[in-house]
Amino acid sequence: MKNLHKTWFDYFLVVVFLFLLVITLYPFLNVLAISLNDATDTIKNVSFIFPRKFTLTNYKYVFEEGGILQPLLMSIAKTVIGTAAGVICTAMLAYTLSRRDFVFHKTFTLLFVITMYVGGGMIPEYLLIMRTLKLGNNFLVYIIPGLIWVYNMILVRSFIDGLPPALQEAAQLDGANDFQIWYKVVMPLCTPVIATIALYYAVGQWNSFMDTYLYAKELPTLQYKLYEIMSQATMQLDTHTTTNATQAVTPMAIRMAVTVVATVPIIVVYPFVQKYFVGGMTLGAVKN
After folding, report:
1. What angle do CA 154, 158, 162 make, to 5 degrees?
2. CA dihedral defined by 108, 109, 114, 120, rounded to 10 degrees?
3. How many CB atoms lie within 10 A of CB 202?
4. 251-286 helix and 150-161 helix, angle to the nearest 10 degrees
5. Closest listed residue to residue 267, CA positions, set 80, 19, 28
6. How far apart are CA 135 and CA 28, in angstroms?
C-alpha cells in the first residue's frame, strides 16, 4: 500500500512538472513561431507554437531596415568589457572585505549594504554622470556606473569566507603578497560563484536600455535600436499590414522578431555557465 501511494505521488509530480514545463515554454515558442510566420496569416490566429506559413520576412525587415549591425557590435563590446570589468572589481572588493585583518571591513560592508536599500535617485545620478563625470555619449558610461553590484559582492565574499583560512596563511608564509593570494589562490577556488556573477553582469549589460536612452543615444546598443525599430514599425506600418516585396509585415510580427533577436544570445550563453550557477548560488548564499 505504501509503495502504491508513492507511485501515485510520483505520477502526480510528473503531471505537475509537465504542466510547469508547458506554461514556461509556450510563451517563448509562441513568440518564435509568430516571428517566423507570415504576418497576414498571424492576424487570423496568434495561438500557435509552430509557424503555419514559414517566412523570414520579419527578420529581413529588422536586419535590413533597422541597421542593427553597429548597435549589435556595441552591445557585444559593452557586455564583454562590462562583464569582465565588473567581475574583476567585484572579486577584488569581496576579497578585501573578507580579510579579517582589514580593520574597517565591517564598516565598509555596512556602507555597501545600505546602498541596496537607500539610493540617491535618478536626478542625482544623471547630474553625477553627465555634469560631474562628463560621461555623456562616452563608452565608459556603459562600464563605470555598473562596476560593482553589491549583491554580487556579497555572494563572492560569502563564498570566500567559506574557504579554509589555512590556504591564504600558507601562501603568506611562502612570501605571496595580497594580489598574488587573490589571483593565484582565491580566484581559482571561486570559479562557481565567479561564473554566477558573470552571468548576472552579462544579462544586466545585454538587457540594459535606460543607460543608452539617458546618456548615450549617439552610441546606440542593440536593445535601444530594437526599441526604435519597434516604435518606427508601430508608427509607419498600417494598422493591419503593409506590403514588403511579396509578403507583408505587421507591428506584432516585428515585435516578436525583435524579441527573439534580443533574447537568443543570452539563451545561447547560459548553458555554458549553468553547471556553475547552482553551486555558486548555494555555496555563496549560506556561508558566513
Report:
1. 170
2. 50
3. 22
4. 30
5. 28
6. 37
pLDDT band at 285 (very low <50, low <70, confident <90, very high): very low
Query: Is residue 287 predicted with pLDDT exceeding 50?
Result: no
Q: Rounded to whole angstroms, how far apart are CA atoms 163 and 49?
A: 47
The most confident of the ranges 40-54, 83-97, 106-120 is 83-97
Question: ∠90-92-95 over CA atoms, to 5°?
Answer: 105
For the chain, what is the mean pLDDT?
Answer: 83
Distance from C-alpha of 249 to C-alpha of 55, rounded to nearest angstrom = 10
- Cβ–Cβ under 8 Å, residues 159 and 283: yes
Tens digits of residue pLDDT in 242-251 = 444 445 678 7
3-state SS of the chain is CHHHHHHHHHHHHHHHHHHHHHHHHHHHHHHHHHHCECHHHHHHCCCCCCCCCECCHHHHHHHHHHCCHHHHHHHHHHHHHHHHHHHHHHHHHHHHHHCCCCCCHHHHHHHHHHHHHCCCCHHHHHHHHHHHCCCCCCHHHHCHHHCCCHHHHHHHHHHHHCCCHHHHHHHHHCCCCHHHHHHHHHHHHCHHHHHHHHHHHHHHHHHCCHHHHHHCCCCCCHHHHHHHHHHHHHHHCCCCCEEECCEEECHHHHHHHHHHHHHHHHHHHHHHHHHHHHHHHHHHHHCC
Cα dihedral across residues 211, 212, 214, 216: positive or negative: positive
Sole residue written with cell 590556504: 167
Judge whether 90 and 156 are in contact, CB under 8 Å. yes
Looking at residue 61, its amino acid is Y
